[in-house]
Structure formats: C-alpha cells, structure tokens
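Can't paste images in this forum, so I'm doing it all in text. The chain is below; anyone willing to post the predicted structure tokens underneath?
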Amino acid sequence: MNGSCACGSVTFRTEGPLRPVIACHCETCRKTSGHFWAATSVPLDHFHLIRQDGLAWFSATPAAKRGFCNRCGSSLFWLPEGGDMMSIAAGALDGVTGLKIACHWFMAEAGDYYTLTDGLPQYQRES
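Text version of the structure:
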C-alpha cells in the first residue's frame, strides 16, 4: 500500500497486512493531529520511505517521536523509542484501504466537543 503527505514531499510504501486502526484521544495526539490520531501500523522492515524531502521528526516525550511533513504540515508517523512497528496515519494511505477502527484509547483525555457513538471498545488509557 502506498501513502503520502498532502503535498507529496513525503511518500512511503508498506508491505503485508496492516493492523486495524486505533484511535488515540490523548492530549498529545489531539494537539499534533487537530482531533484524534487514527493510525494503523506495520513492522519497520515492511515500511519503506520513497521520498522524504519534507520529513521532519518531533519528540513530544522521550518515549516516541512523530513524523510530519515540514512543508504541508501533514501528521504522518508515530515511532516508539526502540520500537519495531511504525504507526501510520490512516488518512495518509492512498485509495481504498479496507481498514476499520478497532477501538479508542485514552478516552480520559478526549476532547469535550465530541461524543463517540460507534459502539467500539473505549479505554481510559491504552488497552
């Protein structure tokens, strides 16, 4: 599956199946994405950057870093320190993905301006 930022300065390809989407409502994800972070993931050895002219990384905490395009501002990746999986913004993937949201994390930090009615599992922290 292929994906990119909005302006095309960052493009990538994944191999193999992608994990179902997890929606993270923690404060950091809300601040960096503008709402909640909806991401799938793939093993690092199945993730390939094709173009990375605009790729920049930001560490909100020592536990992980976030990849974004420094040209168009697209929030793209989340990589835990020492991790072996790359989380990828579901919206950055091209075309029909067949992915579905599986659950919601960090509901204790969710914004007060929305209510979830999808019936999916909701966890106060991570599951």
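The mean pLDDT is 95. The chain has one helix and ten strands.
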